[in-house]
Amino acid sequence: MNKFSGVVITYNGEEYLERCLESLFQVCDDVVVVDSHSDDSTVDIARKLGARVIDHDYLGDGPQRSLGVLHCKHDWIINLDQDEILGSDLIERLPQLDLQNPAVEAYECRRKNHLHGKWIKVAGWYPDYICRIFNKNKTDFSQVKTHARIQTARLRRLNEHILHYSFRDLRDMINRLNLYSDWQAETLFNNGKKVSTFTPVIHGMISFAKHYLVKRGVLAGLDGLSISILNALGSYFKYAKLIEKQAQRRHGDTQHK
């Protein structure tokens, strides 16, 4: 019988956490929640359902997930966000996976992303393959602050689903756009990324065209247009904030001369 441990990193995630953990406990006998000092009922929900809760300052997306993995009992991990739920088709499939196959270190699934409760099938939001199942002895997360990924080439794709209730509304999308672009700009800055004045505009325009036209966001009405615009703004501000950081460093260096 396949043995899985579940890992969820949380912060004020009470809205979907119960459904998230209930889905994990259908296939896992070991679930770890790493919480960053939530002040809602997140921790109470996790403990009530039987998860082991680790309270820790937020280290960033990749490091925080890796911290949770360190506390897991089993080699194979199912990692979900606090607003993700295993689909019934994936729950049925997981016991059937050949976890002894040395050619496979991780599995990725299709993800159904929702905006204000509605499943969005275009604009790059479906099938949106995401790696959420992996062997902790063979691979780990990229150690970045946002959008960490499992690092492996030995990946197998599944057709089964994870449900993702990613954004409550457009305000939520805008707030996270601002936060994520801060983190992404910081990562680029620390890596010494060089860009020109035109980079934010070019990347923003390309992002809009990709999501609205190539990935058919145009077919989703106002939702598709909003998603495409916000993706473009996210790309724009990531590089605009990087240029701002570089200018601030140059100004600081000049003052110290």
Give a description of the structure.
This protein has 257 residues and is of the alpha/beta class. It has two domains: 4-167, Alpha-Beta Complex (Spore Coat Polysaccharide Biosynthesis Protein SpsA, Chain A), CATH 3.90.550; 170-255. The protein is built from seven helices and nine strands, in the order E-H-E-H-E-H-E-E-H-E-E-E-E-H-H-H. The chain has helices at residues 14-25, 42-49, 61-70, 88-93, 170-190, 199-214, 221-255, and strands at residues 4-10, 30-35, 52-55, 76-81, 84-86, 106-115, 118-119, 130-135, 155-167. Strands 1, 2, 3, 4, 5, 6, 7, 8 and 9 form a nine-stranded mixed beta sheet that branches. Helix 1 runs parallel beside helix 2 and helix 6 runs antiparallel to helix 7 (221-255). The longest helix is centred in the C-terminal third of the chain and has 35 residues, at 221-255. It is globular and about 60 Å long. The model has no long low-confidence stretch (mean pLDDT 95).
Task: Describe the protein's topology.
Elements: E1 4-10, H1 14-25, E2 30-35, H2 42-49, E3 52-55, H3 61-70, E4 76-81, E5 84-86, H4 88-93, E6 106-115, E7 118-119, E8 130-135, E9 155-167, H5 170-190, H6 199-214, H7 221-255
Parallel strand pairs: 1-2, 1-4, 2-3, 6-9
Antiparallel strand pairs: 4-8, 5-9, 6-7, 6-8
Helix pairs in contact: 1-2, 5-7, 6-7
